[in-house]
Write the structure tokens for this entry.
Amino acid sequence: MLRSLAFLCFAAVPALAQTVLQPLRASELVPSVGGKWAGPFWPPIAASGELTHALYVPPNDAGGSPVGQVFFVANQYRNCNVTFDPNAHSLVWAWDPANPNAIASLQHVPNTQREELWCSGHAIAPNGDLWSFGGTDLTQPCYFGSSGVFRWSPASAWQAVGSLDPLAPRWYPCAIEMGTPTGSQFLVLGHEQRPIGPEETHQILDLASGTASPLFFNIVADAACQPGAARARFMGYPWTHWLAAGAPFVSGPLETEKYYGCAAPNGSFRWQRAPSAARMREAGNSLHFLDWLPSGREESIYLIGGLSSFLGPGAKSGAADWYVLDSMESIRAPAPNSSANWQNEPSLRFNRRHAVSVQTPDGDFIVVGGIGWTGPSNPGGSMVARTTPEHYDRAHARWTSLNPQAVPRSYHSLALLLRDGRILSAGGVLDPGHSVEIFSPPYLFRGPRPTVVTAPSALGYCNGAPCGSFTLTVDLGAADDPVQKVSLLRPASVTHGFDQNQRFVELPIQASSQPDPVNLPLRWDLQVALPDDWNVAPPGWYLLFAVSRLGIPAIGEYVRIR
């Protein structure tokens, strides 16, 4: 299918996207309205190619940084005419965002010259280890999927994991943690073997036992989850989310068809058709929220921007850019056999493809970077870099433009939330220097921020009704700005505009009190409900944020849910 070509690692962007000369810029806004950018910084990433993957590494049972560090995966840009250089592949740079000008440390991943992290899937295990699945097989003439599996821990650094080699060779795989009490099972699905064409199988990996399931075909089921004759076809990095209903949901990116997963007797999934979205959104992105409302838990998934079609009717070279979207859709309470359906949301101010959307501690999100089309839908139009980020206020359903960044960010660019509430933006094909910029959102300029005084290092689950709770002690930034929200966010594991395993989970505040109004008038004890269960918050590391009424977050605290 020709339209898949724009999504492949080797076809970086259509030709027009490499001729962007002048990004559009907004007027400078005061930081409390438009935020503030720092940088660019240039960590010494001396590798040809691009920063294709980023992971925000949490603490680990075996040690590691207590405040987290960013791992960038940088590889030699690979095409069929480049001589293979074993010293320029599977390179991981560990970088401390608290010291942006400091030298990053280089980690070499074991490379047998057949297994490469380029275009792999990755996830952070409950104990804090990093896992990489699939990628590129460099013994093949061009872009074949790899069956390689690699694991990182502070104790052993990077290791090849041969016991999971039954993993099918995959390009562009998505690896998501399934909701289980131990969190040791991951669902892996995505391109199989060749990069062009759909993937029709999935596998389940058990990290505890070190085993991979046989290939399960993506059988399409009926409303009762009984198997039929058709197969579901997932392309690109499938935007896969683990729902509170205890089922996976594939929300994109290519087809308008969406699928819920129904557990089958043999441990696999059958794929039940979900309502179709209005648009295909290649090179867009998808976000997952689990909010807490007075009426109880509300779950929603958003689809943002992208390309509606790679080649439209009568299209010519570069015509993909005529179909760049500024629209957004959402679905509430998604679950197999539910009545949930897609609904239109307010459109972005700018159409974008290859942008990255980042969830923020207050339950909103910010869209960073991308490429857009301006002018008529014909060769008289032109393409521009979208250097102006946009903030979406979910409570008021409105978009706001923010201050522009200095470096255009497009295909292969990365963005993620840091524990101090800032957003990191890096890389992309329009940035051959591997630069990094850091954005301080407007909420960091609204007033003094709250401070978490004490927080548990580990959390459990509710285990019944009424729900159990934990104590969170917070010093308010201001007496008239109490804590209004407590949220959990998974540390980032992002590539190609999609954060695998990302989710925002709000925890209800059950009660609050001032323990000493005379001596510590701004200190509050909050009784916060534990996460509902392992489907709402799969086991593992999270950043715990206390957010004030003005939306100002405290610095995030790492907690492990087990």
